[in-house]
Amino acid sequence: MSGRKQFDVDEALDKAMAVFWQRGYADASLDVLGTATGLGRGSLYGAFGGKDELFRRALDRYSATYGARYEDALTAHPGDPARAVEAFFGVVLARINDPAVPEGCLIAQAAAQSAVLTPESAAHVRRLLDIQQARVRAALDDPHADPSMLDDLAVYVVAINQSLAVLSRAGASDRELRAVVRFACETVASRLAPAN
C-alpha cells in the first residue's frame, strides 16, 4: 500500500514485550514503546488499540514463547512428576540466565504491578498464572495421590517460579537460585514419595 509504512507486527510485539519486561507496565510510556518499536502513537493505536491492549498482546506472546518450553519440559517425563518439575525449573533457570532477555519474568513483573493495571489486564495476568499452574498440575497428576495435595503442590511450584524471577531481578546469584530450585525439587519429590 502506497503511503503507508509497513512493519512486522511480531517484531514490534517482541520489542514492546522487552520494554514491558524491563520497565514494567507503569514505566512503559507510549513514547518509550514508540522508540523501541519504531512506531508513532498513531501506528501503535492503529495496530494494537493502545498501550493496554499492546501490553496484553505482549503478555500473550511471552506466554506462548515460554509456555511452549514449559510444556515440553513438563511432558518430557511421563510417569515421573518429580523429574518433570526439575525439567520445568531447568527451563526457568535457562530463561533467567539468558543474556538476550531482560532479567526476571514478564508475568511476575506484571503481577507485581497488578495495582496499577486496568482490571482487564490484571485479570489477564491472573489467567496466565492459572494456565501455568494447570500445566504444572497436569504434570503432577497421580491417581494414587491426594488431589488436593497435588493442587497445593502445583501452586507451590508456580510460587517458586515467580519467586525465582523476583530474586533474579534483585541480583540473586546463579548459585542462590539453583539452591532454591534444589530445595523446591526435593520438597516436590518428598511430597510425592508416599504416592509412588
From TrEMBL:
PROSITE patterns, alphabetized: HTH_TETR_1, HTH_TETR_2
KW Transcription regulation (keyword) present: yes
Alphabetically ordered keywords of this record: DNA-binding, Transcription, Transcription regulation
Listed name of the protein: Transcriptional regulator, TetR family
The organism's place on the tree of life at top rank: Bacteria
DNA-binding region: 29-48
SUPFAM superfamilies named in the record: Homeodomain-like, Tetracyclin repressor-like, C-terminal domain
Domain HTH tetR-type: from-to ranges: 6-66
